[in-house]
Request: fold
Amino acid sequence: MLRARLCVLIGLAGCSDNADPDRVQNPPRDQYDTWIKVEPPGVVCGNNSQYKFWVNFSATSDKLAVVFEPGGACWDYDSCTGRNGIRGAANVDGLPDNHWELASFISPFLSRFDDTNPSRDWNLVYVPYCTGDVHTGNNVVTYQGGNGDPDVSFHHDGHAVVQQVVGWLNERFTHVPKLVVTGCSAGGVGALVNYRFLRNGIEAVERGYLINDSGPVFPSTGYSQPMHAMIRGAWNLDSLSPLMPEGFTLDDMGTINTALADEFPDDRLSTTYFRRDMNFSLYSYERFYGFPPKDEVMRMWEADTQLLVDEYDTRDNLYYFLPYYRGINDSHCTTLFNFAGSDIQAQDMTLAQWVNDFVDDKPVQSMIEAPVPGEDD
Reply:
């Protein structure tokens, strides 16, 4: 690996493919192991301020990890402004220039210092979230304030942002033996929905891996249907339907899972989340079912989980890792900060081991943890 670094930095003689098969083949970079800000032209955050993302190049690897930031979602005046204490979306007022400092806290996949991270030596891309649309909207909406509150013009421009990110990466990578696309919560949905754009748009990718953490897109035949209908209109998702994979339909958004599996049969696609996630479940059901009690929310979440598990079990390249409960962050995001605490003890499997095996093309099994007595009482 030292020789590979020297090949890139100083053009060491004898660095042919035959001499060193691990040699970095992408063009030399001006900087390595540091976060570089990129401001793609023409794309903005929710408040119409300049969008930006960050890249951290590796001198020893051509592999690439793209991580989508979490941060809720919004689809009306209250949720996009936070009025009345409604759960909304992160960073809707824009991104500061030091936002990159959150990268390694947002995801272990962005940490070069976590020994359990399979991408610690890879090229890293941090895709922040500031459009309120799980990185996938295509709409500019004026939400009416009323009662003396000013109207708000909101840019749900997540799709345009991702297209700029994809184009930028495609111009700068000529060799990508492995691409990992991941994110948690809204970032998990973003990773899932945008997987096809990254996989096809970065032409040098040889094989892809999707790890959707805690952003499941359940079949619309279940309890998620009202939320799916709401975001379909608010974010103008019908305009993007022609760009989605064959087999996907907005009438059943859960078909994104099997449609991707069918389009990329040699890739590995997965989801991981807690069975007692009391965060994403609230976004999914709370405002659409009259703010039900926790037991009812968990019942709906469990029913939707069963629909998703049944769907995943129909494809050999779809995998799930579903632990039961963790007493941090309402059991939301299995990869929050790191992989610790997201184990399935009955099968003696840690999430860190499962993820590393998944990315290393070792045998893995879908796993769902049984309820653990005494947890989440």
